[in-house]
Amino acid sequence: MAAQNLQASIVRKFIPARKLTSRKGDNGKVLVVGGSYIYHGAPILSSIAALRTGADLVYTCVPKVNAQATRAISPNLIVIPLVDSKLTRGAVNKLLGQIPNDLDSATIGMGLAIADKEALNLLVKSLLDRDVRLSLDASALVNYILPLISNKNVVVTPHAGEFKKMFSEVLPESKKERIAIVEKHARENSITILLKGATDIISDGKKTFLNTKLTPAMTVGGTGDVLSGIVASMLARNRNPLESSAAASFVNGMAAKVVQRKVGLHMVASDLFDAIPIALKPFDKIKQ
């Protein structure tokens, strides 16, 4: 299978038009689950990125110790405190009773402290049972989750280190070899992998896209959290995991180019918020 370089003409097909008569909620209801005592910012970055990408409603679930600070960052976030400081089965059961039944997508793991693996398994299985499209990142990129997400329209977004943790394989420097390994694991596990790097590799094992970003300023912490929010927002509208992941990678990279032109090599992840709409503007479509 030949990997295809992403271009605007391809991405345009992956981003649905917005109905002229759409109402609140029609363009995506997204859940973000992340955060811990140390990493309070990660789920905030994902949540605001999801809103900037076009989601109508974003429910941000963070440990209760972070809830007040998260609410203070933006009035646009709907904050749901986890009843425990980490993800526990009790906290998951409580959360499942608080979120809407008609969520479109969720992204899980950014900065998240997980108390035990059964808590993550319960959350993932329960959301999949509700036909929620999932994107997993950071703490949720664990080997034991693979049997649960196989053939379930799930996206995982590892960097090279997280890839090793999840799939027990070290990625070589060679792009050609990396592509082959990503394709193999995507195919064997029936998932979509978005491998983050200087060139993002996005594959479902059957088709592969490449997105070469050439934005070294993106090494700053938090840009992957922004990407997770974009993926979740894309999944909420285009429920195809490969297409949504490819579009998210492209938009995230274009937004970073906007910021890098403006501030050079000195961006912070939140700089991407205002650049996401600029990157998306050429793809804006309205239909009757």
Number of structurally distinct domains: 1
Average pLDDT figure? 96
Structural class: alpha/beta
Number of helices: 11
Shape: globular
Encode the helix/strand succession as letters. EHEEHEHEHEHEHEHHEEEHHHE
Largest beta sheet: strand ordering: 1-11-10-9-8-7-6-3-4-5
Please identify which CATH superfamily we are dealing with.
Answer: Ribokinase
The assembly state of the depicted protein chains is: single chain
* Share in β-strands: 15-25%
Kindly provide the name of the CATH class.
Answer: Alpha Beta
| Gyration radius, rounded | 17 Å
N/C terminus separation: 38 Å
The CATH architecture assignment turns out to be 3-Layer(aba) Sandwich
* Main sheet overview: 10 strands, mixed
Poorly predicted runs are: none
The CATH topology is what?
UDP-N-acetylmuramoyl-L-alanine:D-glutamate ligase
Task: Please give the share of residues in helix.
Answer: 40-55%
* Count of β-strands: 12
Overview of the structural elements:
With 288 residues, this protein is α/β, with parallel strands linked by helices. The chain has eleven helices and twelve strands. The protein has one domain (24-287): Ribokinase (UDP-N-acetylmuramoyl-L-alanine:D-glutamate ligase, 3-Layer(aba) Sandwich). Helix content is 43%, strand content 17%. The strands form two sheets. The protein has a ten-stranded mixed beta sheet with strand order 1-11-10-9-8-7-6-3-4-5, sandwiched between helices. A hairpin with a 3-residue loop joins strand 9 and strand 10 (199-203). Helix 1 (8-14) crosses helix 10, helix 9 packs across helix 10 and helix 10 (241-263) packs across helix 11 (272-280). The radius of gyration is 17 Å and the shape is globular. It starts with a strand and ends with a strand.
